[in-house]
Every structure is written in C-alpha cells, then in structure tokens.
Design a protein that fits this description.
453 residues, alpha/beta
C-alpha cells in the first residue's frame, strides 16, 4: 500500500517547505506515479490476455451416436433425455474455458447439428465466410454400432466439403486455413524425450518434416477431432456378436487411417470417462492454441488418445500383427457386419390362430381340391364327398366314418374294390384326411352347418 504525503497548514509554510527542496519532492512524486502506472498496466495486460477471442466447436454425427451425452460429460454434468427435444435441427451450448488455476476465463460456443443431413443448410449459421477460421469440428461415431462408423464419417466429411465449397471463400483465405492445419500436423511435439517434429521457433513450412504419402490427402482447412463414443459396448459386441480382439484392432486401424487422411485427432470415450479430461484440454488446444501437455495412449482398447500429428501409417500398421483371420486391406464392411434384420420390426404382438378355425380352414381346402378334380378322373361327385365328410350320427374315429362310407357304396350296388375312389390312392388319402379333420372338429361343439349336412 502506498501513501501519498498531504500537507496541511498555511500556504506560506507549505510554500516555504517546497521552496527548500523542489527537486527532491518532484522526483519522489514521479517515482510514485511510475509505480502506479506500472501496476495498472500489468493489471490491464492480464485482463486483456484473459479476454479470449470468439471460437466455435461444431459437433457432427448420426442420430444416436452420443453427441449430447459427450457434450454434457465435457461440461461436467450428467445428460438427461428430456434436455434433447425432438425435432431440434441445431442445438447450442457452451464449454467453460479455464486457466491453469481452474478459473473460468471464457466460454467456447458449442453447436450440435441434428443427425440427419436434411438439416445441413443450418451449417451456414455456424460455419460461414466470416467464421470459418474460428471453427473446430468434432466428428462423433459410436462403438455400439461399429458397422456404421466409416460410412458416417465419410458422409459428414462430404457434407463439410460441399458446404465449404458453397461459402465462396477467397483462395488465399482457404490456402491459409489449409496451411495452418498442415503446419500443426507437421510440428506436433509431444514431450522432450520424444523425437522432435519441429526444428525450432518460427520455422518455415518447407523446413518441416515431410508427411507420409496419403496423410492429409483431404485437407478441409478446419481442425478435426474424431471421437468414438460408447467404447464400453465392446463387451456386448464380444458376447452378442462374437467379436474378437482382431475385430477391434481392425476397427481402430480403419479409424486411424481416416484420421491420417484428414489430419484429424482420434479419441475413444466411454462411461468411465478415462479420456474426458484429455479430450477437454485438446479441444481448447485446437480452438485457442492453448498448451496441451497430454500424451498419446493406445494401450487400452477403450481409452485411445491420438493427437493430430503423432500417428503415422507405419505406426498404425502395427495393428496388423493382431489380425489373424482378417486382412488389413479388406473392406471394412467385409468383417464389421450389421445384425440381421428381424421379421417383426414393428413390435406388434403376433396372435396365434385358433386351433379349430385352423382345422376348419384345412377341411375347406381339402373339399375344394376334391371338387376341382371331379369328372374326367372318375372321382366321386361332391354329393358323395359331402356324405362321407360329415356324418351327423358319428362321433367316432376316422375308421368308423370310413366303414359308413363303405356301406353307402354297397347300397348303390358297387363293391368297395370297384369304386373309383378306392382305386385311386390320392382320392383315398384325401378322404382319410377329410374324415380326420372332421373328427377333430366334432370333438368340440360343431357348427350348425356341419349338423345340417
């Protein structure tokens, strides 16, 4: 605390005092003023440094990929389904930006687009000509549906490409954005004990390490972060889908190839939140160029952390050793197959047909078949079939009904052997079946039309 001297008394005394030491007093006041100005300048400088520029995180992914849950986890809270109203095309929230002392110094705007590409026209509110240089994109897929991963990533990258082309960016602006993405990838430096990727300071682009062929083949000019959510679903895939370690290695291999091709980072995420803090800090690192002291991690299957610039195709090919029955060059969909479609997808209850109605319908079909075959084949006319099909006085077994039909034939003067119905094996079988179904019907209350026959 500084105290400034105040002089009280008559003007003459004060004036006389200043007249004796004019130079020393003036010098002392100047020192006090310089000290205060220095303190105020330091405070103003710190306040200016804490005032962050406006940046945006754009989240893209299919419906059900876990975008809202992931954002809520990064915010340090639990996601509730009622927070996500149906039909929302573009959602907005934010992430608190904190310094080393965990003091909030700003907010990062977070926009999440609906999982259907029908809403891609809303991208213009987030990613336009004026904001393109300040947008970081996070692509979200989920391990619960691995067969959709690669198709989803390619789809959303295509949506981004088409949208960026429609913005009409100046060639210099787009080239500068692409150059920044490439330089960040080339100059990645994880720690002092690792091989350096940049040679120092303000290094020219031509002096940076050359990238492998195929790396950054698709450079959108936007920082990309690919996140695979629901990685704890791997145990379910092992149990229900018979996935083995080589399947998960094959999935990771394809995700890393995609990340290298587009210059993206790759993070796995799950319920335990093993990579939550690393992902949060990396988002701030890409959005505000804040220091990120994290390290890559590929040891745990559900906690993969690969920052942009660390990986190479050579490092990713180490996963080939775990592929026993899968070739690294096979198509993704050759081995990561979707489940078979179920017949009853509507969820409606299937009602079982009544037994008597089923038997009655079969009897009708048999009767129609015999009627269609009457005439040239020498089979009995429908009247004879009716007499043998439903005798009103018989409730016995099919054998009893069959003897009645023999007596009926004898009454007409024809022996059973001479009857065409008995001579044709197919007609005899039809009679037996008809009598059998009829006896089953008669065991329960028959309908009136059966009694009148």
């Amino acid at each position: 605390v500084f105290f400034f001297p105040l002089f009280f008394g008559s003007p003459t005394g004060a004036e006389r005092g200043f007249k004796k030491m004019p130079a020393a007093t003036s010098e002392k006041e100047g020192e006090h003023q310089d000290l205060w100005q220095s303190i105020l300048q330091d405070v103003a400088l710190q306040t200016t440094n804490r005032r962050l520029p406006t940046k945006t995180l754009l989240v893209l992914g299919d419906e059900g990929a876990g975008k809202s849950t992931l954002i809520a986890r990064l915010q340090g809270r639990k996601y509730h389904q009622e927070e996500h109203p149906q039909g929302t095309g573009l959602e907005f929230t934010y992430l608190d930006v904190k310094d080393e002392d965990s003091d909030p110094i700003g907010r990062l705007g977070v926009y999440s687009l609906d999982g259907h590409t029908d809403h891609k026209n809303l991208l213009s509110f987030v990613l336009n000509k004026d904001t393109a240089a300040d947008v970081t994109v996070m692509l979200v897929v989920d391990m619960a549906r691995p067969w959709l991963m690669m198709e989803s990533l390619e789809k959303w990258v295509q949506v981004l490409q088409e949208h960026i082309q429609s913005l009409g960016l100046e060639q210099d602006q787009l080239k500068n954005m692409q150059a920044a993405v490439k330089k960040h990838f080339q100059s990645y430096d994880e720690s002092s004990d690792e091989e350096k990727r940049e040679k120092g300071g303000e290094e020219a682009e031509e002096d940076l390490i050359e990238l492998e062929q195929g790396v950054l083949d698709v450079n959108l000019g936007l920082p990309l972060i690919t996140v695979c959510t629901k990685c704890d679903a791997s145990s379910t895939l092992e149990k229900d889908r018979d996935y083995r370690n080589e399947h998960f290695d094959f999935i990771q291999l394809n995700l890393r190839r995609f990340a290298l091709k587009h210059g993206s980072a790759l993070f796995y995420s799950g319920k335990e939140g093993k990579t939550k803090e690393a992902l949060y800090k990396y988002i701030l690192h890409r959005a505000y160029d804040m220091p990120w002291t994290g390290k890559h991690s590929i040891a745990e299957r559900d906690a993969v952390v690969i920052p942009a610039g660390w990986d190479t195709f050579t490092l990713a090919s180490a996963l080939n050793d775990g592929l026993k029955n899968i070739d690294a060059g096979d198509n993704f969909t050759d081995h990561i197959l979707p489940p078979l479609a179920r017949k009853n997808t509507t969820g409606k209850e299937i009602e079982v047909e009544d037994e008597q109605e089923f038997l009655r319908r079969q009897q009708t079909l048999l009767s129609q078949n015999k009627e269609d075959g009457s005439g040239p084949g020498g089979r009995r006319p429908p009247s004879t079939i009716a007499n043998t099909a439903a005798p009103s006085t018989s409730r016995g077994s099919p054998g009893v009904t069959r003897s009645n039909s023999v007596r009926s034939a004898a009454a007409t003067g024809a022996t059973p052997a001479a009857t065409p119905a008995r001579g044709a094996g197919g007609q005899q079988n039809s009679d037996v079946l008809a009598n059998f179904f009829n006896s089953l019907l008669n065991k329960k209350a028959p309908k009136k039309e059966d009694e009148e026959k």
